[in-house]
Design a protein that fits this description.
518 residues, alpha/beta, FAD/NAD(P)-binding domain, 7-stranded mixed β-sheet, 7-stranded antiparallel β-sheet, 11 helices
């Protein structure tokens, strides 16, 4: 078979689009295969129905535990980054060395200082609004290129609660323009980030790297569902098999394969690509593909106030943030976490007003929503999960309509993670009461950001890839995304996904002959 590309990238989300742009600009022929549709800015409609259309729309995973959440994933050009909230904090520095510092979890194969230059470069390229001087938890790094987003009444109300308890907060660092910058407009604060940003104020692949990749010659094929990665006689990734929209089979041959799907879909494809040389799945000599799946514990805490809190104003991420490192003050379960304070709220849908009281119906629900749209204030905490090998993704006996086994999620929050959730919920209730809420309550434990499943590390026996995302077993197979994270630190992952990807793609280009098939 004739080689058709230097690089085949599977997935056109944040990492896939970024890799495509960098590699195409370096003169490589790049083909990106994306299972979902060809979204454009014209499809970003401020509507609760439209927000759901951007979420994962192919075969669902099956789960024996209530940890799954399609709201974390996307499909189509731009992937989940089309509807991400733009929450872009840096992890606390201890996140990268939890084993070395505390004897817990797993160390990353580099420390924060090694990744710091890539954070600085990405934030300048993409744009982040914030104020580093108001983030005492933030590790060293360049100042944000834009001032913070505006603060509205809901944020001011909740801030007084944190202030009374002596808990510092600062403007939430967001990949959203607070001013016109690099041909992208400033935010209009209508709170529809979850439905996609049609103006381009929110950094997403449609206004950052995807079009630039196309302009540099990268080809994007949508409705192209990859089913297997096939290796050659030397055990290197060689052919990528996929089905088009009409379910017609195709195969692409490339020098380098980049797997840029989600935390769930990357292990699924590796496991489904098992062959005689890789009987347990590609890149799986360690037996860790799919294992150490981490799902943050989410605690939403809500208050009702006898004053107008303007909960409809702002952005989906929130107006303010508070971060905690792994150890805290020693008086709570270990695990990093972040508060996202005063997100814009709609009457219903994800984190919406009706969603906070799911036991109400009819006239009682109507009356509650009428109160909430004027007097509600909300905050959401995301707490770190432990990298427990038994929490995993594997292939189900259930197959999708293409005949491919779907992913099965087996995940249960550890005792430590559940204890951290209880702490976050109690802290949030104390804040709401200190702020003057006449009524306050919290949601049940909810799934947050996903990480792990294809972790990186130094030792091939205890990791799937090296520090650049290169498979230990298949030398021309690159993995991307939060699946690489050995720990998650209770921090939104997208900023770190980009920083790790920049470090990786520059290594690939510098050592191209070593990476690519001769």
């Amino acid at each position: 078979m004739k080689q058709e590309a230097d690089v085949v990238i599977i997935g056109a989300g944040a990492a896939g689009s970024f890799y495509a742009e960098r590699l195409a600009k370096a003169g490589k022929t790049v083909i990106v295969l994306e299972a979902g549709p060809a979204w454009g800015l014209e499809h970003m409609v401020s509507s609760q129905i439209w927000s759901r259309r951007l979420k994962w729309g192919a075969a669902p995973a099956v789960s024996a535990t209530p940890s799954g959440s399609s709201s974390q994933f996307g499909w189509g050009l731009g992937g989940a980054a089309l509807h991400h909230f733009g929450t872009w904090p840096r992890p606390t520095a201890d996140t990268f060395k939890l084993k070395s510092l505390y004897g817990e979890d797993v160390d990353w194969p580099f420390d924060y200082d090694q990744l710091r230059p890539y954070y600085d470069r990405i934030q300048d390229e993409m744009g982040i609004s914030g104020d580093a001087a108001q983030e005492p938890w933030r590790p060293p790094g360049a100042a944000y290129p834009m001032p913070p987003l505006l603060e509205f009444r809901q944020g001011q109300v909740l801030k007084r609660g944190f202030d009374k308890l002596g808990l510092p907060v600062g403007p939430l660092p967001a990949a959203i323009n607070s001013m016109e910058r690099k041909d992208r407009p400033a935010c209009i604060y209508d709170g529809w980030c979850d439905a996609g940003c049609p103006t381009g104020a929110l950094a997403n692949p449609l206004v950052t790297h995807l079009n630039a990749a196309k302009a540099a010659g990268a080809e994007f094929r949508t409705r192209a569902t990859v089913t297997r990665i096939v290796t050659d006689e030397r055990g290197r990734a060689r052919d990528v098999h996929y089905l088009d929209e009409k379910r017609q089979p195709h195969s692409l041959r490339a020098s380098l394969v980049v797997l840029a799907g989600s935390v769930i879909q990357n292990p699924r494809l590796l496991l489904n690509s098992a062959n005689d040389k890789h009987p347990d799945g590609l890149a799986n000599s360690s037996g860790l593909v799919g294992r150490s799946l981490m799902i943050e514990s989410g605690a939403q805490v809500i208050g009702l106030f006898d004053e107008d809190t303007e909960p409809h104003m702002g952005v989906s991420a929130g107006q303010l943030m508070r971060r905690e490192d792994h150890k805290g003050n020693g008086k709570r379960p270990h695990g990093g976490y972040q508060w996202q304070i005063a997100p814009a709220m709609k009457p219903n849908d994800l984190f919406g007003i009706a969603f906070t009281k799911y036991d109400l119906f009819g006239a009682r629900l109507d009356a509650f929503i009428r109160q909430g749209v004027r007097g509600m204030a909300s905050m959401m905490a995301f707490g770190a999960d432990e990298p427990v090998p038994e929490n995993r993704i594997l292939l189900s006996s259930v197959k999708d309509d293409l005949g491919v086994p779907v992913a099965e999620i087996r995940h249960k929050p550890s005792a430590r993670a559940h204890g951290l959730w209880e702490h976050m919920a109690a802290e949030g209730l104390a804040v709401q009461r200190a702020a003057g809420a006449r009524e306050a309550w919290n949601s049940p434990l909810a799934p947050g950001h996903y990480a792990g499943g294809t972790i990186m590390g130094v030792d091939p026996a205890h990791s799937v890839t090296d520090s650049y995302g290169r498979s230990h077993d298949v030398s021309n197979l690159i993995l991307t995304g939060a699946g690489l994270f050995p720990s998650n630190g209770g921090v939104s992952p997208t900023f770190t996904i980009y920083a790790v990807a920049l470090r990786s793609v520059e290594k690939i280009l510098a050592d191209w002959k070593d990476y690519a098939t001769a």
